[in-house]
Amino acid sequence: MRIGFVGLGTMGGAAALNLIKGGHQLAVCDLDPKRAEEHIKLGATWAATPAAAAWRADIVFTMVFGPSQIEQIIRGENGLLSTLGPGQVWVDMTTKKPELAKALASEVIHTGAQAIDAPVTGAVDGARTGNMSQFAGGDEETVARIRPVMELMGPLHYMGESGCGSITKLASNQLWAIHATAMGEALVMAVKSGVELQRAWEALKIGASESWCMHHDAPSVFAGHYDPSFTLDLCQKDLQLIVAACDDAGTAAPATRLVADRFEEARKRYGGDKGELHVVKLEEEAAGVSLRLEGDWIAHWDN
Fold first, then answer.
1. Is 21 a catalytic residue?
2. Which residue of 12, 83, 129, 207 has the fewest C-beta atoms within 10 A of its own C-beta?
3. Relative orientation angle of helices 278-287 and 254-270, to the nearest 10 degrees
4. Which class is domain 168-302?
5. 164: which residues sit within 8 A by CB, 6+ positions away?
6. Contact, 6 vs 73, CB < 8 A?
7. Phi first, then psi: what are they for 211, rounded to 5°?
8. CA 154, CA 69: separation in Å to the nearest integer?
């Protein structure tokens, strides 16, 4: 298929490479042309604007920082609304409020194109290895039609009508933030109480305490870099969307609100450009405990 791809950041760049390797012709677009160098070497063409990326494309994927950026890509000068039409499909992988997903989808559908919201999860290694989970909301027949293309990037889960993909992604990030905070508290408590860190980690990776976070993210704490592939600024952007979604749904969500405060404290103390797991460092410093652990902790984005 002819595919447009707008947004070649940490996740988007890797996902686009998997589409090229899958045999599709891509036109790629990003604010930083240097991000497209590898894609172009593999046969992609450069598009200077979102509209140019979408020109004559069967599917247009977008994956950018947040709501304001995706609004500009859709509604702005040389945006997708200026060129999308019947037969085309827009798939947005940006994390955003479901209300915005629905509003933008309505505008795109008015052009005759189809719109799918399909935000993703699975970290950088998932994007690179084609194991990036996608939560899709929108027309079910359209999702089924483009499923073979999307599955080149990772597992695809159909969640329901427009907006359902976005709310599922927020729920996923909601649980991750709670798990990351709880992981730090549990490991610090165990170590300060006399349990060796390696033994504590092995025990907490099984049974009722098992989580993706304990398996995948703890090594970033042990190594001491706290995973710079996703920053505290990005965490707080997502947590603001999550808290707003809780407000919109009328849910109390006390744990979520406390965790959002902890991430904000970490962002203020260490800087918004620092790695997401600095929320664990808060707990280490408060307790006077180090969670450094000797080992060959290969960064997951290098796998």
1. no
2. 207
3. 80
4. mainly alpha
5. 98, 117, 135, 137
6. yes
7. -155, 160
8. 24
- Give the residue carrying structure tokens 């730090």: 184
CA–CA dist 239, 87 (Å, integer): 35
The residue ranges of every structural domain in the chain are: 2-161, 168-302
212-250 residue pLDDT tens: 999 999 999 999 999 999 999 999 999 999 999 999 999
**Residue of 96, 169, 274, 281 with catalytic role:** 169
**Rounded Cα gap, residues 168 and 127, in angstroms:** 18
CATH 1.10.443.10 matches 2-161: no
Phi then psi for 91, rounded to 5 degrees? -120, 115
Interval 117-132: pLDDT, tens: 999 998 888 999 999 9
CA 44 – CA 63 distance, rounded (Å): 17
Nearest to 92 by CA among 189, 107, 82, 77: 107
CA neighbours within 13 Å on the CB side: how many for 119? 25
